[in-house]
């Protein structure tokens, strides 16, 4: 039985990846950091199938112990302070987790299991103020946030450990990917949750930032397959994973609101609070290399994914409303 260690297993991608690896018969170890309120929402259905190891990306000793306890053949480093907006008010924390945390992880692997295969969750945010379109593996980076800068560091330290120590270390440069498990603060989920609340009469407006920003949005369930494929190759390498399509936030609003017969213009209010100090205006990925070498391709389209997210949020909010009525009756 193959063993894999996943950091960030409680997050969106970690939960889909854990499902995929369990389906493939892996023994899955999940790194869990201490929080005052446990956060198992995304992995509640497989919680008992995961072997838990405790640790934090900022604490090298804990990572050494986690790698020692799990003895993994494959390590997926998905943990990060992953919300771009938070990286301006918390640049040092973001750097400690999202940048130096990668070195901590790589050191733990180098010292304990140097033959293990390592996946680093790099990001299209590294392309930032893009210098070419579409963006591919050879496109120069120009990050626009402390998060993007941290991911550039994480990317290059991964490449450096591959070249310095001959480690099987891969960096997946993933463009935005979403799902019903996406954190509520990210724009797709904020919109689909807002649509559900407006449709069910719980609120009437949705406050938004820059509607002209363009993103290449895919489905997280498709993207974790690419992570796994990267670690099954003969040689370690870096790959862009994207849909080769871009959409504005405005198009996202149109698709989500019209799915429940609403017009976004009747509900969206522009709030300067949600504009960023420096924006990434356009992301559009070219994943030809992943298609040719990994045989990877997306299955779920942007529109299908947004519909899936609206439907899931409608069902959830409706259930929450029922529970509230029940609680008040009791
Ligand atoms: P996410 O939902 O925000 O999950 C982040 C995970 O990291 C959570 O499990 C979180 O644990 C964990 N974490 C945060 N700080 C930690 C620390 N100090 N020590 C240990 N664990 C820590 O992120 P995601 O969307 O699944 O993304 C996964 C990875 O891919 C991230 O590295 C992200 O930056 C990168 N990425 C994401 C996208 C995307 O569009 N989703 C695109 C490119 C790259 P808690 O539950 O305890 O908070
Ligand atoms: O959903 P977002 O917060 O994602 P962002 O900043 O693109 O970052 C995500 O994707 C990266 C990959 O490219 C990951 F590395 C990163 O971890 C994360 O998963 O914002 C998308 C766009 C931005 O241009 C933002 O300015 O939506 C715009 N936007 C407009 N109004 C908004 C809002 N974003 C948020 N979160 N909230 C708004 O009200």
UniProtKB/TrEMBL annotation:
Residues 5-309 form the NAD(P)-binding domain. It is an enzyme of class 4 (lyase). It catalyses: GDP-alpha-D-mannose = GDP-4-dehydro-alpha-D-rhamnose + H2O. Its cofactor is NADP(+). SUPFAM superfamilies: NAD(P)-binding Rossmann-fold domains. One of its GO terms (molecular function) is GDP-mannose 4,6-dehydratase activity. The keyword Flavoprotein does not apply. InterPro entries: GDP_Man_deHydtase, NAD(P)-bd_dom, NAD(P)-bd_dom_sf. Gene3D superfamilies: NAD(P)-binding Rossmann-like Domain, UDP-galactose 4-epimerase, domain 1. Keywords: Lyase, NADP. Its EC number is 4.2.1.47. It comes from the Bacteria. Catalyzes the conversion of GDP-D-mannose to GDP-4-dehydro-6-deoxy-D-mannose. Belongs to the NAD(P)-dependent epimerase/dehydratase family. GDP-mannose 4,6-dehydratase subfamily. NCBIfam families: gmd. This is GDP-mannose 4,6-dehydratase.
């Amino acid at each position: 039985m193959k063993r894999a260690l996943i950091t960030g297993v409680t997050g969106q991608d970690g939960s889909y990846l854990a499902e995929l690896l369990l389906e493939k018969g892996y023994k899955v170890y999940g790194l869990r950091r201490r929080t005052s309120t446990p956060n198992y929402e995304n992995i509640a259905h497989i919680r008992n199938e995961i072997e838990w190891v405790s640790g934090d990306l900022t604490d090298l000793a804990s990572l050494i112990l986690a790698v020692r306890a799990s003895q993994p053949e494959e390590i997926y480093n998905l943990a990060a302070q992953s919300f771009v907006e938070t990286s301006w008010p918390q640049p040092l924390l973001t750097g400690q987790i999202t940048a130096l945390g990668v070195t901590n992880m790589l050191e733990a692997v180098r010292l304990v299991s140097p033959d293990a295969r390592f996946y680093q969750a790099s990001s299209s945010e590294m392309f930032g103020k893009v210098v070419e379109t579409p963006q591919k593996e050879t496109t120069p980076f120009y990050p626009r946030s402390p998060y993007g800068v941290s991911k550039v560091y994480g990317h290059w330290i991964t490449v450096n450990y591959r070249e310095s120590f001959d480690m099987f270390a891969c960096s997946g440069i993933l463009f935005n990917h979403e799902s019903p498990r996406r954190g509520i603060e990210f724009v797709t989920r904020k919109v689909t949750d807002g649509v559900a609340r407006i449709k069910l009469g719980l609120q009437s407006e949705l406050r938004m930032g820059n509607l002209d920003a363009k993103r290449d949005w895919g489905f997280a369930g498709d993207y974790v397959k690419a992570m796994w494929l990267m670690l099954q190759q003969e040689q370690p390498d870096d790959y862009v994973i994207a849909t080769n399509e871009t959409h504005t936030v405005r198009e996202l609003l149109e698709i989500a609101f019209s799915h429940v017969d609403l017009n976004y213009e009747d509900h969206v209010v522009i709030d300067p609070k949600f504009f960023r100090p420096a924006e990434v205006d356009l992301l559009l990925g070219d994943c030809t290399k992943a298609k040719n070498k990994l045989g990877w391709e997306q299955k779920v389209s942007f529109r299908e994914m947004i519909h899936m997210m609206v439907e899931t949020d409608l069902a959830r909010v409706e259930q929450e409303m029922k529970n509230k009525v029940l609680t008040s009756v009791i």
